[in-house]
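During the reporting period the student researcher (J.K.) took over the structure-prediction task from the postdoctoral fellow and processed the backlog of single-chain submissions. One of the processed entries is reproduced below for the supervisory committee.
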Amino acid sequence: MSDYRIRAAVEADAPEMADMFLEHISANPEYISHGEMQMGVATGSFPFGELKAEPSLRAREIWLRYILSHINADGWAKVFTILSDPDSDDGSVIAFCVVSIQSDEGSKYGMVCDVLVKDSFRGLGLGSHLLDKAVEWLHSQGINEIYLESGKNNHSAHAFFRKRGFAQVSEIFKLGK
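J.K. obtained the following structure tokens:
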């Protein structure tokens, strides 16, 4: 991570992030969780009783609106990026993390929505530093309960999150007609 710096995402980053996200879920459908299906970014079918997830036809358009709402959030969300050129804001996005503050009638809690690092930059500690920055931001907002979701078969991400102190608390089921 030595030469890379984390910065808040700006609107100009959104199209590149949307392309990066769509490319990743197209090549790695195990990344897709119920969140992507609920928001319409992905679809899920159940041939032979097993989930087959894939990006929806409107995935880029929907995700672009989603990420812009998080970039422009008024204190309830934050998007952190790492650029390929650590010395300027002109580099391409090579990693990002989306985090939000939510509430469901109880106390507020944090949600790590996405952590994504381009394949060619994995293993450099970028994901760890983004996750640390997200947790630090949530703590600075007075949030101590932090959750995340991950695709059912995204085993490498599960191991990554466990190494960083997260523990599985539930499983999500979808009616497979």
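The committee noted the following: DSSP finds five helices and seven strands in the chain.
J.K. will present the remaining backlog at the next meeting.
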